Amino acid sequence: MSFNNYKSISDVLQQFPFYYQEDNFVQEIEFKIDPYFITRLELILKEGVIFNSESAICENIINPILVEIWLKYKEKLLLWSHQPLKYDDNLSGIPDYIIARRSPRGKVILERPYLILVEAKKDNFEEGWGQCLAELIAAQKLNNDQNKIVFGMVSNGKIWEFGKLQDDIFTKNIKFYTLEELTKLMSAISFLFQETLKQISA
Predict the structure, then answer these.
(1) pLDDT in single tens digits along all 202 residues of the chain
(2) What's residue 113's pLDDT?
(3) Sign of the Cα pseudo-torsion (22, 156, 9, 99, in order)
(4) Nearest alpha carbon to residue 160 among 145, 139, 182
(5) What radius of gyration do the chain's Cα atoms show?
(6) Distance (Å, rounded) from C-alpha 81 to C-alpha 97?
(7) Domain covering 3-201: architecture
(8) Which helix (H) or strand (E) holds 158?
(9) What does the DSSP assignment read for 46-99?
(10) DSSP three-state, residue 115
(11) Domain limits of the chain?
């Protein structure tokens, strides 16, 4: 079954033996944003057509934010866009974004473990989390190590929510972040990148 067939976290939990909880695990670590990036993003938000479609949100908001953060971690991590991911017929599809270990064999190799997955949905967070959790389970199984943490993000561009999967427990962060508070948002995402690096070296 494709990732997008899961319409809620409940749908996923009925199929797989995982548990759900809520907590605040995300920390805001200092992230210095390039002033040019802020100026350009503000210009796009003011003058551009941004929220008319999911693709426009991905291209104009989500991707630029992820790329800006990824550039500080590019020696160890790769950012993949719309890369197929498959564990089996029940866990397969194309996540919007995957952040994975950079392969020593070159950037054309999608390396294990798959550490962060992002599913961008236009306002339908319930469905977005159903798909994202299914993707996290596929990543965990492909990693073949339940102790490693895989992180997920669901966003409509304006609001960003975070979750993590470790062992058989999925934890959804209680606090969400907004585009309006860009510094806090990017600091939170940077924390996930930093935690991802710990998974690589663990």
Answers:
(1) 689 899 999 999 999 999 999 999 999 988 999 999 999 999 999 999 998 888 899 999 999 999 999 999 999 999 999 999 999 988 999 999 999 988 888 888 887 767 778 877 778 999 999 999 999 999 999 988 888 899 999 999 999 999 999 999 999 999 999 999 999 999 999 999 999 988 877 6
(2) 66
(3) negative
(4) 182
(5) 16
(6) 5
(7) Alpha-Beta Complex (3.90)
(8) none
(9) HHS--TTSHHHHIIIIIHHHHHHHHTTTTTTEEEEES--EEEETTEEE--SEEE
(10) strand
(11) 3-201
Query: For the whole model, what pTM was predicted?
Result: 0.94
What distance lies between CA 24 and its chain's CA centroid? 17
Residue 176: both structure tokens together: 């969400």
Tokens at 31, concatenated = 């992230």
CA dist list (Å): 154 to 36, 76, 120, 129: 26, 23, 5, 7
Task: Kindly give the pairing relationship between strand 19-23 and strand 169-173.
Answer: parallel
- The strand pair at 159-166 and 150-155 is best described as antiparallel
